[in-house]
């Protein structure tokens, strides 16, 4: 599946603009992490872009989140590792691949970064650095939906929290205009 096809598919299933932006942010973070690890950038990016494709369909039944995504995506010829990562990002099944571990941590971090950018005096992700995001990370009441424990699981990737945040910031800077940040 080509990136343009994946984005068209996302737009077919997701109407919420902010959710689409979140998925684009996750796509870019995953691409940068794949590059860092010498992994398949396109596959990792697809996992990031497609990971919440079922979100609007499962909002009233969150126990199905990820599972419905896999059902939607199964006929598109995607690698099983991508489908596994999409399901595993919900925490319902074991994260057995580096891709799945990365997506699990990226998912909440994108929200924390967006909230940090909106709080920054410039309102731009380009202005953020790891130190600024880490200060927000330590504020328990800030961006409460961004699960800090989930983000900390980046240690499963062999990355420090600072390294992980910096890589994701680099990724999100690449798509800042698409994110409106």
UniProtKB/TrEMBL annotation:
InterPro entries: HD/PDEase_dom (IPR003607), HD_domain (IPR006674), HDIG_dom (IPR006675)
SUPFAM superfamilies from the UniProt entry: HD-domain/PDEase-like (SSF109604)
Record-linked Gene3D superfamilies: Hypothetical protein af1432
Pfam families: HD
Domain spans labelled HD: 20-101
Source organism, top-level taxon: Bacteria
Keywords, in A-Z order: Hydrolase
A molecular-function term among this protein's GO annotations: hydrolase activity
Name of the protein: Phosphohydrolase
Organism: candidate division TA06 bacterium DG_26
